[in-house]
Amino acid sequence: MTIKPLIILPDPLLRQVSQPIEQVDSDVLKLADDMLETMYDAPGIGLAGIQIGVARRILVVDVSREDEEKKPIVIINPEIVRSSDERSVYEEGCLSIPEYYAEVERPAAVTVKHVGRDGKEHLLEADGLLATCLQHEIDHLNGVLFIDHISRLKREMVIKKFTKAAKAKV
Fold first, then answer.
1. Which residue in the list 22, 69, 91, 137 is annotated as catalytic?
2. Which residue in 67, 17, 26, 66 sits closest to 45, CA to CA?
3. 136 among annotated binding-site residues
4. What domains can be seen in the chain, in order of their start residue?
5. Is residue 80 a contact partner of residue 111, using CB atoms and an 8 Å limit?
6. Residue pair 60/47 in contact by the 8 Å Cβ criterion
7. Is 137 a catalytic residue?
8. How do residues 79-126 score in pLDDT, each as one tens digit?
9. Strand partners, 59
10. End-to-end alpha carbon distance in the chain
11. Cα–Cα distance between 2 and 7 in angstroms, integer?
């Protein structure tokens, strides 16, 4: 397994829509393992393929606490098939927008149809933090960032800050 470098805002790659994965093969499984290692190393609770420069519809999540056994989930070609009317608010952060956090309101529960590591279709019913994390990562696959769910003024300030930081590195 390999820790991959993270794509950081304002990289335009983060706005790209990811392509479906046709078949779960050894390359996809290796990608999933690399993504998990990268996510744990960061550390984070979710990572989409695009965040390591791979524009394919794959994400990994693990919302277990540090004192619990790891519970990694690999999700390929996810599709939200049901969202609750009930809403919840979580303070979200993102490995591609380091050290910035904001409260985001999303559906409190979702059902996600996806392909697992076994190549078979599954339904995952999630609520709480897992539901928020899944929605956040699926947004990434569609070129959407969590800052797109906050006010325009706050979003523009964040983008400006990260654009300035990126220019300073060059």
1. 137
2. 66
3. yes
4. 12-169 (3.90.45.10)
5. yes
6. yes
7. yes
8. 999 999 999 999 999 999 999 999 999 999 999 999 999 999 999 999
9. 48, 75
10. 30
11. 15
Q: Quick one: which of 114, 107, 104, 87 has its CA closest to 145?
A: 104
Amino acid at 95: L
pLDDT at 66: 85
Cβ atoms of 146 and 94 closer than 8 Å: yes
94 known ligand binder: yes
The Cα–Cα gap between 6 and 95 comes to: 7
Q: Is 122 flagged in the annotation as binding?
A: no
Flag residues of the chain having pLDDT under 50.
none
Cα–Cα distance for residue pair 3/9, rounded to 1 Å? 19
* Residues in contact with 9: Cβ distance below 8 Å, sequence separation at least 6, in sequence order: 96, 97, 145, 158, 159, 162
